Amino acid sequence: MEEKIFLKVSDLDESVRIDKYLSDSNEIDFTRSKIQKLIDDGKLLVNGKTVKNSYKVSNNDEIQITDEKIVDDIKAEKMDINVVYEDNYLMVINKQSGVVVHPAPGNYSNTLVNGLMYLCKDLSSVNGKFRPGIVHRIDKDTSGLLIVAKNDKAHAILAEELKNKEIKRKYIALVDGVINHDTGTIDAPIGRDEKDRKKMCVTSNNSKEAITHFKVIERYKRATLIECTLETGRTHQIRVHMKYINHPVINDPVYGKCIYGDFGQLLHARKIGFIHPITKEYMNFTCELPKEFIEIVDKYKEE
Q1: Do domains 72-164 and 170-269+293-301 have the same CATH topology?
Q2: What topology does CATH give the domain 170-269+293-301?
Q3: What architecture is domain 2-70?
């Protein structure tokens, strides 16, 4: 069957042409020319109606794309998933570095969602068939904690908590160089890099507010171990902000440089806290650093 992709526009500060909005999106991997062809062919609808390439999207617009390629349904796959907590309404997962969170055009297997579908028969449908249960994401090469919703009611409440900044997230990162300040706040807007649409950067053009708080845990000769707290949740936020202050995350292949083999950026979602959507109990979870992360930190300690 043809692949149908559903997107909802949110967190948009100003109107932008639909072909630019979608070509810059991290949700799909389509060029601007492909999007324009889909529009011309009537395979892209906004709020159930065809539009022109010049149409400017607004918050809450619902976009439906019928892709030309033929794909099978997303399949459940047996995977080794670290479930930190589970009840009838949600799961908290400790995602391994190197695992993509959900399928997307061009990558329909070996994602966390494929494994979750094998593990759990009931996942929320709020975000469509490609992202069942996924309330929020972390990058492929970032490890750590994620919340997964088992039904639509729990998902909707958790999504509202996320929107209202009620879900608290703390990350551990090993960054290049020595940070002299014990604490700091990076308040710098993030938007799409105009020279490379796959990257984000600090910019005043089509950007969104982005705030990261950090504190130093330990300093080494050539690196600093820090804890970061997100006040906002922009794409690649910590990685972009740390590069912006000239302390890129070590082993970040996009915003820094790889030093130690093929292990991804040394960024780990260590803590997450939220109000349970049904019981209203405050839940707080912590997971330890991956052994590869610790081994690299130890190398810096020994210098």
Answers
A1: yes
A2: Pseudouridine synthase (3.30.2350)
A3: Roll (3.10)
How far apart, in whole angstroms, are the C-alpha atoms of residue 13 and residue 229? 23
Residue with tokens 């159930």: 48
For 19-44, the pLDDT digits (tens) are 988 888 777 777 888 899 899 888 89
- The DSSP result for 64-84, as a single string, is EEEEEEE-PPPPP-----EEE
**Residue 24 a catalytic site member:** no
- Predicted pLDDT at 136: 93
Task: Tell me how far apart the alpha carbons of residues 242 and 91 are, in angstroms, rounded to a whole number.
Answer: 30
Nearest to 151 by CA among 159, 142, 143: 159
Query: Dihedral sign, CA of 67, 71, 77, 79?
Result: negative
Contact 186, 176 (CB under 8 A): no
Nearest-angstrom CA–CA distance, 86 and 93: 9
Return d(Cα 171, Cα 47) in angstroms, integer.
Answer: 37
pTM over 0.70: yes
Q: Which of 19, 61, 122, 139 is catalytic?
A: 139
pLDDT at 98: 92
CB 275 within 8 A of CB 283: yes
Domain ranges of the chain: 2-70, 72-164, 170-269+293-301
For residues 236 and 228, give the distance between their C-alpha atoms in angstroms, rounded to a whole number: 13
CATH architecture of the domain 72-164 equals 2-Layer Sandwich (3.30)
Q: Which residues of the chain have pLDDT under 50?
A: 1, 70
Within its chain, how far is the Cα of 147 from the centroid?
Answer: 12
Distance of CA 164 to the CA centre of its chain: 17
pLDDT of residue 70: 46
Give me the residue label for tokens 């009840």: 87
